Amino acid sequence: MYFSASLKTSLERYILLSTALFSIGIYGITASRNVIRVLMSIELLLNAVNINFIAFSNYIDPLEIKGQIFAIFVMAIAAAEAAIALAIILAIYRNMSSIDMEDFANLKW
């Protein structure tokens, strides 16, 4: 019994991991000019949210799987978002031969 209790991680560790991932994602969005890096940073933000969903769901009621369901839903939305964003980036790269954020200003009407 003591061995299994010592392997259980606390909620604080999950929150710390989620905060670190969220901070790295925010830094990646604000500091990068490359669209691929910004897209990867957005994915980090969404993964931080998924960790929070699962950790808080397990903390509040370990027998319910609502947090896991929300995490799967967020992963599906993130996959669709990434596919659409990569298709748009590829189309822009074919026309402009660059994926720098400053070059996207030329896409105005």
Q: What is the residue-mean pLDDT, rounded to a whole number?
A: 87
- The stretches of 5 or more residues where confidence is low (pLDDT under 50) are none
Using only CA atoms, what is the Rg?
A: 18 Å
Written as H for each helix and E for each strand, in order along the chain, the element string is HHHH
Compute the number of helices.
Answer: 4
Walk me through this protein's architecture:
- The chain is mainly α.
- It has a single domain (10-99), classed as Helix Hairpins.
- The protein is built from four helices and no strands.
- The protein has helices at residues 2-7, 11-31, 35-60, 66-96.
- Helix 2 (11-31) runs antiparallel to helix 3 (35-60) and helix 3 packs antiparallel against helix 4 (66-96).
- The longest helix has 31 residues, at 66-96.
Give the topology, please:
Layout: H1 2-7, H2 11-31, H3 35-60, H4 66-96
Helix pairs in contact: 2-3, 3-4
Structure in a nutshell:
This protein is mainly alpha-helical. It has four helices and no strands. The chain is elongated.
Spell out the key features of this protein:
109 residues, mainly alpha, Helix Hairpins, 4 helices, elongated
